[in-house]
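hi! just following up on the protien thing from before. the input was this:
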Amino acid sequence: MKYKAICFDVDGTLYSPQTLKQFMINIGFSHPVWASRYNRMRHLFRSLQGSFEETGLENVDFSEREALVFMKMYPKRKMKLVEAREKLDRNYYRHMEEVYATLERQPETIATLEKIKKAGLQVCVLSDWPLYNKLELMGVDPYIDLKITPYDMGYLKPDVHCFTYMLDKLSLKSSEVLFVGDSYEKDVTGAAKAGIDPVLIGHHRDQKEQFPLAVEAFDNWKDFDDWIGGQLEA
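and the predicted 3d structure came back as:
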């Protein structure tokens, strides 16, 4: 097998997209105003991150970047940086951590990771959100060699910085890594832009022509497990 590492998205990939969707609905119902503000902030963050290096934001940590982007949404309020960071933490991230308390992994995840590790490959995760104790709750933490979040590299997928940072930490070439995710726009396009082969989970394989950048597309984790098992044996 040409790959030396397989990297996974976490939310919607290591556990089901349906679970992720329900989590977001729960947060939306419990805190509708802040859920809307947070989603707007993340959308604006992604639209601005291509210019971070030009604006000097590449020199500040991710929490500060988020706070600065959030402040741009409300210029008339003249919020201080520390206030913006506290608002994001208190009104969104703390609730997100609570929501993940009952997290369950995909049924075949452990078996898949055991196959990958037995074959001698590195396993990493690249998430757009804080990990909290999600990996421990799913029982997959012992199989993970590298964990990356925006707090490490300062960007959100699909920005290429996320994937080049991952390659640097793995000390591997792009051709030696397979990336597995559930979002075509974020996971697949971002990985492909960095020259990494992407696999899409949660989309019908017979609709693969709709996802031209994906090496393969699978309806569910079981189908992916069957495929990667064959790849590892080969």
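The chain has a mean pLDDT of 90.
The chain has two domains: 5-16+106-233, 20-100.
cheers
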